[in-house]
Structures are given as C-alpha cells and as structure tokens.
Amino acid sequence: MNYRKNKTGSDYLISMVIMMIIAIFPLLPRAGNAQSVLPYRDSSLPIETRVKDLLDRMTMEEKFRQIFMIPGDLSIGKEKLKAGIFGLSLSSRGNSSFDSPGQMAARVNEIQKFFREDSRLGIPVIVFDEALHGLIREGATIFPQSIGLAATFDVNLMHKIAQAIARETRSRGIRQVLSPVLNIARDVRWGRTEETYGEDPFLVSQMGIAYISGMEKAGIIATPKHFAVNVGEGGRDSYPIHYNERIMEEIYFPAFRSAIHEAGAQSVMTAYNSFDGSPCTANNWLLNKKLKQEWGFRGFVISDACAVGGANVLHFTSADYGGSGKMAIENGLDVIFQTEFDHMSLFYEPFGSGKVRLGAIDSAVSRVLCAKFELGLFENPYVDPSEAKTLNGTSEHRSLALQAARESIVLLKNESHVLPLGNNIKSIAVIGIDAIESRSGGYSGPGNRKISIFEGIRSLAPEGVKVSYSPGCGRIHREFSTVPEENLFFYKNGVKQAGLWAEYFDNTTLDGAPKISRKDANIDFSCTLYEPAQGISNNWYSIRWKGKIANSDNGNIKIGIEGNDGYRLYIDGKLMIDNWVKKSFGTHLVDFYFEKAREYDIQLEYHENTGNAKIKLVWTSNTSDSSNHSIRKAVDLVRESDIAIFAAGIEEGEFRDRSSLKLPGLQEDLIHAMAITGKPVIVLLVGGSAVTMNPWVDQVRGIADVWYPGEAGGQAVAEVLFGRYNPAGRLPVTFPLSEGQLPLVYNHKPTGRGDDYNDLSGMPLFPFGYGLSYTTFEYRDLSLCPDLLSRADSTMVRFKVKNTGNIAGDEVCQLYIHDELATVARPVMELKGFRRIHLETGEEKEVAFFIGPEMFKILDKNMKPVIETGIFSVMIGSSSKDIRLRGNIRIQ
To answer: Is the pTM of this model over 0.85?
Structure first.
C-alpha cells in the first residue's frame, strides 16, 4: 500500500513533523534532565558520563569517522567532513606565510569552528603533527636530533626541550604529536637509529619520560612509537619480529611501560611489522592483553600511516582492506591512520554492515572521545594566533637548542691534545658538504636562522685566522646515472615522443598480447608493495621497453642495467647483456660507442616471478671522475692550511637502512689523501648512528660526533673546536669495529665460550657511554650504606669526583649493576643510573645514586618478577668499559 498516496494533506503534514522529531530526538536532552545543555556538552558531568551520552547519539558512520585520522584540512571538502573525523594534520602549502605560526593557528581555529558548528554532533578534531626534536613546521625551533639529545645524558635538559616544543606546538592548536620514538636501537644498521634514544632500555626510558611528561603536562598528547619493535634481522626497518616474551619484557617493553605508567602517555603508535606472525596493528597479545589489560593503558592506540592496509598488502593476513580494518579494531587498535580521505571507503564496508564487533568499535570510539574531553576541546578548541607568533622560535628556545647541541657533542679521539685548537693555528681548511648543509635529520622543520659548521667556525675563529672551505667529494659517489628522458624516445604514428614505449604482460615470458601498454619516461622501475600495472600481480609479470636512444656527444659510453637479474638488453638489435636467469642484484655495464645525435634502437626485456622488482637503465662516460677532481681540490686547500676539519656525513633515515657502516661515497679516500699531507686532520661525524673507522681512525688526530646538532649546531661545534665549551657527550649506541659484529650492545648476556672472532675482536671500537673531555676526572671513596639489604630495602651509593685537569668541564657518572649469581642468565652489566655534573678546575663533588628494590628485580624461569638473594656488583664509571669504582651489595 502506498501510504503517502492515500494520506490527506493534514495527515502528511503530521507525519512529516513526527519524522522530524524522530530525526532530532537523539540530540534532545534526556527525559528528567532539566538542563538545557546536552549531557555530553555539560563540563560539570564526569567524562565517563559524557562519553556514554555522546556515544549513544552517534550513527555507525560517525563512530567510524572518530577512529580515522588523515593529513588534510577543509580543502578536502566541507560536505565530506560533516560527519566528523578523529583528527587532521594540516596540509602544507609550501608558503612560509601560509604555514607561519600565526597563520597556522588561524587555520586550526577555522577547522575547529567548522566541526563545532557545522557537524551534526559538534565533535572537535585533534590536530596532530610530528615533533621528534622540534615541531616540523615553519618558525618552530629545531633542536638536535633525538640520538643527539640522548647523547647529552641530561634528563633535565630533555624535559626543558620537551616543554619548549610543547609551547610552540600548542600555541598553533596542535594537540597530539606522533613522537617520541622509544624503539631500542640494538642494530645500528637501522636507518631510523637517529630518531631513537639509543640501545639501552634505561636510558631510553628516562629520556622518554622526560619528553612525554613535558608534553602531557602541557596538554599535548604524546604518542610513543613504534609499539613495540620496529627493526628486525639485518638492521632492516619493519622486518618481522619473532622474539620471546623474556627479551620483550627485559629490553623492548620497559620504555613503553614507563611512558604510560610514569609519564602518562595517552596514545601509542603501532609498528608496521608483524610480531609472532600477526601484524602489530592487529596483534591481540600486544594491544589487548599486554597494553590494555596487563598494563592498564587507558588511552588510544593508532596505527602508523597506512599500516592497517599492510595486513592485506604486506603481511597477507587479510583478503582486503575492509578485513584489515576489522581485524585491527577487534584486536586492539583504536584509530586507523591513513594518508587520504578517500581511503575511508576502503575500510568502511564491514563497519557499516555490522560485521565488526560493536563492543570493539564502541571501546575504540570511547577512548578517542575521552581524550577529546580531557583535552578540553569541547569547551574551547581555539587558540590565540598572536600567541603563536610570539611563542615560536623565541630567543629562549634558541638558547636551549644551542645548549643541547653543546651537550650532545661526543669527543671520540683527541690525540696529542689537538683540540681545542691552539693559538698557533693561523689557517683552517674546512672540508665537506656537511660543513655547509646544516642537515637536521629525519622529521625536521626548516628551522630558524640555521648556523652551519662552516659559518660557526668562521664567526668564532680568532682575528687573523684564515678559514677556507672546499666541498670535497660529497657523501654519494656513483659511477653511473639513470639514462634521462631527454635521451630516450619512440615514434608512435610517425610522431616522435619522449620516453620509451612499455608493454606489461601478465606472464613471465612476454607471451601473447600485453595486458597494458603505456609510455614510461625512463627505465627507473621498482615494484615492492603494489601491482606494477592494473590487473597484474606484483610477483608474476614481464615488461618490454622499446624505443630509441641517442647521446649529444661522440664517445665511448658504458651502458647497462642496475637491478635484479631477469633482463636482456638489446641495442640496434644486438644482444648486449643477457641476465635472464633470476639470482641476485647487481650492476652490469658494457662499452658502447655513441655517434653524436645518432638514433639507436634500444629494447629492454625484464621478468619478475617473486616480487620486489628493481631495475634501472644506466650509463656513464670514461671521462675523468669529477669526485676525484673534488678530492684533489680539497687536498690542495689542506696543504695550504695549518689544520683540516672534515665534516663527514652518513646517509640514513626512514626505510634507508645501511648494509655498510663505513663513510659513504669516497669520503674515506678523501681522509687518506688529507692525512698524507702531514697536516693534522679532525673528523666531525654528522649523522645519527655508528660509523666504522678501521681504515682511517689511526690517520686522523681528532674525531668528534656532532650528530644532527639542530639550528644552532654550527655555533656549538665551533665553540667545542675553539675550547669555548668543553665536550662531555656520551655515546648512546655502541660503535662496532665491523658490521660483522652486529648486533653489538654493551648489556648482552654472558657467552657460553668467548666474545671474539677468528679474525676480529668481539670488542667495540667505542663502547656505550663513552666520551672524552678536555680535562680529567678522578673517582674515589665509594661507599654503599647499607650494603646488606632485605628484598624490600633501599640503599645509597656515594662517591667523590674531582676535576684534576686545568679546565672546567662536565662529567657523566654512570651506575651499572650486575647480578653475580641468578637462576636465569642476566646481562653482564646494566645501566641503572647516570648523572651529568659540572666541576670547576680542582673542584670535587660527592655524587649519590639511590638504589631501590626495582633495580634488583628480574624475571625468573616462570616469567615472574622476583628479587633473588645473593651478591650484586655495583659499578661506577665514565663509560660501560671505563669502570672506576666497584662495590658489592648483598641481599638476604
């Protein structure tokens, strides 16, 4: 029966009114509530009550929107955003005025106003961003990279830096930062070591607490990441993890646990990889059992960007994106982090159709809403743009960045006291592009008035000292390059077009008609995650590129392929390279004489049958190497100078792991060439991880690790070189002699036989906690009172440290403990305390460390925390190898 057709006009009007009442009923105050304010908007009510009230009013789409976060702003389209969203990270326009602190604050206000006034329920968003060592935005202060901050061994300084970052961040309306990185860097080949606080769980925990507490107390949600291990075998990012519970509890969990229990972190980010066979974004044991149930975590868990879909694309544990989202939310994830608004449609179907357990959805949404209520966003989500202008990049924050850079510098070698530079130095050769680039490391903003190493040296050099610069050989040396588009072309219907014609086949033998044909600009092809072309599997296909190649000059050229085997190269119909059998990766070049402007037929055939494809068409000439020319110019400058300061850099970063720890490019050759001149050479290491040095360490007089020292780093480096600041940084990671020793950490468990190799020592090049000073320190008078304890007792270790040199300086005193006899194997030593102290010449101070029961606690054979009776060795030192004092504590 057609109800509308048979109604009278008045009946129809009444029915429409009823329908309108039904539609708005969820937004009306509950019966018996005399207030005019909806319960969830009433700030006098408990947050739990407000969350429940709001949750009851939400549609499934609105709930789903609250567990979805993306980069973007209102340019996405207001109509698209009216149903709400968890949060946004504002898009950058590449315009300094558009992205300035004040303008950004105004944009955030506009966004919050829209969601508060134009969305159905008025739920504000959480604006989030990255702030690893400073907010990555225009006008924000850049502090030293995280590994450099860890090298300060200064928790108080770390906390002040976090407070400064929080002030700059909140002034713009940003209320969540996707920082810090609490992963333990136990393999320095990992490209993201720079983002961490090093290899030791205690040091990482203390630095993490200092950072997170500074954020959370300022009303910024910190998001420690990547829960719980982000680097696997071979030092490779996001490789699968198969660790047992003991190593997780002893090494990888402590920093995250302390972030929650001691620092109050309200959010956690998962890792990309799988743990024990399940993606970390959907790992019930990690997220539900460990994090939420056992640890009592009450905040919300977010994925890394696009990691939820990884269950489908990478881990193959889900058939599609919707299934990946279902699996993630039901196994403990609360927020799906994607990079595009339109990705929402990939995940929504199982939520909208009721296939996802409602209790899991409501739990996730409740955690998000609770955070938004606790932040006060429902009451006042706005900020004052004028404050953002004054609170960002202040002189106070810059001074703090300068002090952090000073404290982070680690002096590794100082032969014959070559540093600080003496008054006899009249000319200085500054070598290396890192002397002028002012690199800041991963997740960095543009900074304010960045000072390069060269600028710092030139500005602080005494009057009359000549400071000259040469770039040297750079960090990257390639004997060949990808053949560019302008040298490749093809004819289609008689018309010349740039690039090559590509045919993609859905088999590995180039059989039949191509599945897809298209123009490719050049041959620089890789395919690891996704299909190479629509409808073609990423592990079973072949490609044929055809066209012409020409060179603008006459000459003999080496041309060939860099990439995975499985290719054949033809030039003018002649088979030049035949590497059709799949086995490895490499570079194969052949000589070919090009006549100027002549067009040669070129054809490259490639097949892939297991995935992870990489292939490039490359060439090079036999002309003199420009890098060698640059080396000669740098060496000539060194010969004309009294001393050489070489800023040597490494290449690393996210998904840029290193197979080799040596200085990249021809930098080692440059060091050899400079050393041959007989002039003293000082190497400044610019980077965020360890470097091997065996070929050159004995050829240079001084070595200092300056990390990525931040926007004022050049001044700090110069102050150290000229003796205006006495370095006292310490290594937060072990420097190995060779990659063959990796992973190499100081707090390993005892070996069953020995530490050494047949052809190499098992000892490090530089140990954890190591760092030199321009002065010397004497340790004496260790006392442990009491030294006989019950399991519940605490004690104090006291000792005296005296500056026995002729210059004031800092010393980092380190406390290590070893359980002499336990029911399970224990580390040979464990850092349990550290303190950075300042001593004037001849000054002596007493230093004390509190030793409580937690320092003696271990996990027994049944994984139960216990304190066992027996003797514990207490070691006080200047590094993990340089132990100055030792005593014993007996627990009875």
So the answer is: yes
